[in-house]
Design brief:
Layout (H helix, E strand, L loop, with lengths): L12 H18 L5 H10 L11 H13 L4 E5 L5 H9 L5 E6 L2 H13 L6 E5 L2 H10 L7 E6 L6 H11 E10 L16 H18 L4 E6 L5 E6 L2
Parallel strand pairs: 1-2, 1-4, 2-3, 4-5
Antiparallel strand pairs: 5-7, 6-7
Helix pairs in contact: 2-5, 3-4, 6-7
Pfam family, one: Methyltransf_3
GO biological process, one term: methylation
InterPro entries: Cation-dep_OMT, SAM-dependent_MTases_sf, SAM_O-MeTrfase
């Protein structure tokens, strides 16, 4: 007899209901308000073999709102991929705003670059082709950078999330926001380990460790939003 406790995406009515609700939200409140250049970039990314790495549109809409609410002007993005979240950030911040965007994969970034240029926001972006930790450490060498960023978004290698966190807490101002993507890792953080596909287990363990650490970090106020693949929103408290 089939074990009903197994996580089968096609047979779980709760998950199906959730998928239907997500589709409803996308079609009624997200896609109609998505800027045209963002929509074009999302569609261009859909054919890329690693398209699952892109920021979910519903998560992106929340991020754009948070950027506006926090009046962010100086931001940093760790992990760019084709630039969906980068473009939405550039659209949300003022014309004289600045984004330090770090990713070792320039080829992926160049997929999004024509759409960034079309939106006329390229002047806001400083793209650095590099692993993130050396760049963050270099920024911290200059004391004038400490506590000057309004906002940070992290969607990079999950094993280094805590290393990024420690550095970003020095770079982001008190009251500033740091968002971490993929902290629910497809929902597997709540699954029994034996139900998790072996390829997902390593990152799942990193996500579990990060989620536990961030929940106990008194330096930030947090909210974990079950949107996209999990958004952990942190505000630097001190």
């Amino acid at each position: 007899m089939e074990d009903s406790t197994k996580h089968k995406m096609v047979s779980n009515p709760i998950i199906l209901q959730s998928e239907n609700l997500t589709k409803y939200i996308l079609e009624t409140s997200i896609y109609p308000r998505e800027p045209e250049t963002l929509k074009e970039l999302r569609n261009a990314t859909a054919s890329h073999p690693m398209c699952f790495m892109g920021t979910a549109p519903d998560a992106g809409q929340l991020m754009a709102l948070l950027l506006k609410l926090s009046n962010a002007k100086k931001t940093i993005e760790v992990g760019v991929y084709t630039g969906y979240s980068l473009l939405l950030t550039a659209l949300a911040i003022p014309d004289n705003g600045k984004i330090v965007a770090v990713d070792p994969d320039r080829k992926a970034y160049e997929i999004g670059l024509p759409f960034i240029k079309k939106a006329e926001v390229e002047h806001k972006i400083e793209f650095i082709e590099s692993p993130a930790l050396p760049v963050l450490d270099k920024l911290l060498e200059d004391p004038w950078n400490k506590g000057t960023f309004d906002f940070a978004f992290v969607d990079a290698d999950k094993h280094n999330y805590w290393n990024y966190h420690e550095r970003l807490l020095e770079l982001v101002k008190i009251g500033g926001l740091i968002i971490y993507d993929n902290t629910l890792w497809g929902g597997t953080v709540a699954w029994p380990e034996e139900d998790v596909p072996p390829p997902k287990r390593g990152i799942r363990e990193s996500a579990l460790a990060f989620n536990k650490a961030i929940a106990n970090d008194s330096r930030v106020l947090i909210s974990v939003a079950s949107i996209g693949d999990g958004f952990t929103i942190c505000m630097r408290a001190h």
